[in-house]
Design a protein that fits this description.
54 residues, flat
Length: 54
């Protein structure tokens, strides 16, 4: 079960700033290991591209 970004931001906002900064540094330092690394940005498939505003 995942929490969406808005709810997570509200929960993290309750933490004191030094703890939030420490947590941010840990995620930033390990972002490739946590979220993976891509050589290129992913291009949307044609059906999704049709839905985008141009």
């Amino acid at each position: 079960m995942f929490i969406d970004g808005g709810k997570l931001a509200c929960v993290l906002r309750l933490l004191p700033k030094p703890i939030r900064d420490w947590l941010y540094q840990r995620v930033a330092r390990n972002r490739y290991r946590l979220f993976g690394h891509r050589d290129m940005c992913a291009l949307p498939d044609p059906t999704f591209q049709k839905r985008l505003i141009r």
